[in-house]
Amino acid sequence: MISWRKHYKKGLIAIGLLLSTSASIYGQDGDPKNGEKLFKANCTACHALDKQVVGPALKGVVDRLKTEQGLDTDWLHKWIKDNKALRASGDKYANEVFEKFNKTEMQVFPNLADKDIDDILAYTTNPPVEEPKADPAATTATDTANAAPANNTTSSIVIISLIAIAGLLVWILVKLRQLVKLGQSEELTGLNETRVKSFSEIYEKYHYIGKGLLAVLAILATYGIWNWIMWIGVYKGYKPEQPIYFSHKIHAGENKIDCQLCHSSAKYGKVSEIPSMNVCMNCHRTISEYNGKYIEPGKDKAFYDGEIQKIYAATGWDAEKQQYTGKTTPVEWTRIHNMPDFVYFNHSQHVVAGEQAIINSFNKKNPDNKIDVVCKACHGKIDTMNVVQMANDFTMGWCIECHRTTEIDMNNGYNKEYFKNLHEKLKKQYPKDGGKITVDAIGGLECGKCHY
Ligand code: HEC
Ligand code: HEC
Ligand code: HEC
Ligand code: HEC
Ligand code: HEC
Ligand code: HEC
């Protein structure tokens, strides 16, 4: 006879898988906490949740636009990414709201990923409550609401169906258990015996379907968990406010100042530091006001002049007497890129040894979007950003993907020296793509290379 106990266990495994699948889909939903961060960094200059500032109040904007205008989150994605393009496309509501706000231009956010926008929208739908309420029931209710933003109907449907399937499985298991008890009991009545028999026949016939279902669930669960892990600590688009409004677009773009003039340590070491105020003073001792042609929408000359004055305040420079007063106040830049402590990342490996390899490979992959400076392969077009923002997700998957696909130059000075003996051996060992050697061949996928 079939061992029912064994199948009982399988059922439990299936339920476990189901639960983890739904949990991980849950995890992929808009994350209001991250949304809050992004909102504060990108939107608070012009928007508040509860009151109109430069633009309209955004609390509950998803529902409001749905009920009042019949617009979905797709529209919001388009608007937030590039409201100008949307207006130009003739979209009715986009032009209406623009007129209504006296043609005040909203900034475009081409660098916000769809997930970022989902997170921001989740935040406007369910902003975390500032002060915990005295009523514990109310607090738990909002907590769960935060974890499951209501705007994502698709995943809600998936979650509900998964829970329904889980319920069904539990029911079947209970029934099975009853049958097991029956089957084991000494005094099987004729009726029960035929029941058990016919059930085993059915099982024999159809158990492949069950196994198939189990396999599908296992795949879904693995996929979900993988996605969930991959999203931990992703801050693509993170763009905090800085103590001085330093524009890379004005420095590296308009004035073509070389990245490494300011971030000189990238070449030599592990970190690529933020320049000290002395570096700023090399130029700003003489550049005390802004006379550039380029002015960012919403800013003006007076604003830039004020920001340059902050350099003098920080370094204690008396512009009139042309001397330092000795009174300095440190400028505390907010760090944007920050790998966890257990990751080892070395700029010089990439900026010196890998420079040509990375530029060549990037340009091959992006023929319409070529780069001239190695930094841009990882940091994006910083020279077009007024405010630096993370251009990639800087996850392990991102590092690995590049190591798998970037062909290195074994003949550059650095590698020739470093890999003298390895060189020929590798060429024989990695004949794929006709002897091409990618970073993984020199250990770029070894855990210990990137982790302490
Ligand atoms: C420079 C100011 C500015 C910034 C920054 C800004 N917005 Fe706006 N936003 C506006 C203005 C002004 C409007 C009103 C429409 C118009 O004039 O174009 C608007 C309209 C909107 C609307 C339409 C609301 C409605 O009721 O129709 C949404 C949604 C929106 N903004 C989201 C965002 C998000 C999300 C961010 C941050 C990622 C953001 N905005 C950043 C100025 C801004
Ligand atoms: C004139 C000096 C100067 C130049 C030139 C310059 N930077 Fe910067 N960079 C700064 C300062 C100051 C900051 C800190 C403030 C900020 O984040 O905007 C910074 C921040 C950054 C950051 C973010 C650091 C963090 O906190 O994680 C990156 C990445 C960066 N720069 C890359 C570049 C690249 C790439 C170029 C060339 C295209 C470049 N920089 C050119 C001064 C400069
Ligand atoms: C290699 C020269 C150079 C260095 C170094 C330099 N700047 Fe500038 N900075 C300029 C130039 C050029 C302008 C534009 C002036 C103009 O067009 O009239 C400018 C403009 C500015 C402005 C007004 C525009 C804006 O970006 O908001 C600020 C603020 C500023 N710099 C801050 C800094 C800070 C802070 C540092 C040090 C981290 C720094 N600069 C280092 C050359 C430099
Ligand atoms: C292969 C990808 C890659 C390239 C190429 C690259 N960076 Fe970075 N950069 C990173 C990573 C990853 C971090 C985060 C490092 C950390 O947190 O330890 C970072 C961080 C930074 C920071 C913040 C300070 C720090 O070191 O953590 C600055 C500034 C910076 N990069 C500038 C540059 C400049 C300038 C160049 C070109 C000369 C450049 N980067 C080239 C990946 C890259
Ligand atoms: C844009 C492509 C690119 C990205 C993204 C990238 N790398 Fe690399 N990496 C390279 C190249 C190319 C080399 C080989 C340089 C050489 O020696 O020729 C390299 C080499 C390395 C090495 C040395 C490997 C060895 O065996 O000597 C380490 C460690 C490393 N990278 C860590 C990282 C980490 C950590 C990240 C993510 C934070 C990362 N890299 C992201 C292109 C990349
Ligand atoms: C090319 C560089 C690189 C290699 C090789 C690499 N890692 Fe990572 N790993 C990273 C980076 C970068 C992070 C941090 C990602 C983040 O903060 O989102 C990370 C994060 C992790 C985490 C934490 C989980 C998380 O997402 O935060 C674990 C666990 C881990 N790595 C294990 C491994 C193991 C095991 C290997 C070997 C099979 C390995 N790593 C190889 C770069 C690498």
From TrEMBL:
Domain of life, per UniProt, equals Bacteria
Q: Where is the signal peptide?
A: 1-27
As one GO molecular function, the record gives:
heme binding
What Pfam families does this protein's entry cite? Cytochrom_C
Which residues does the annotated region (Disordered) include?
A: 125-146
Q: Does the keyword Amino-acid biosynthesis apply?
A: no
**Sorted alphabetically, which keywords does the UniProt record give?**
Heme, Iron, Membrane, Metal-binding, Signal, Transmembrane, Transmembrane helix
Q: Membrane-spanning residues where?
A: 156-174, 213-234
Report the residue ranges that make up the Cytochrome c domain in this protein.
Answer: 30-128
Task: List the biased-composition ranges (Low complexity).
Answer: 135-146
Q: Which Gene3D superfamilies match?
A: Cytochrome c-like domain (1.10.760.10), Cytochrome C3 (3.90.10.10)
* PANTHER family in the cross-refs: CYTOCHROME C7-LIKE DOMAIN-CONTAINING PROTEIN, LIPOPROTEIN CYTOCHROME C
Under which name does UniProt file this protein? Cytochrome c2
Tell me what organism the protein belongs to. Chryseobacterium indoltheticum
Q: What is the lineage of its organism?
A: Bacteria, Pseudomonadati, Bacteroidota, Flavobacteriia, Flavobacteriales
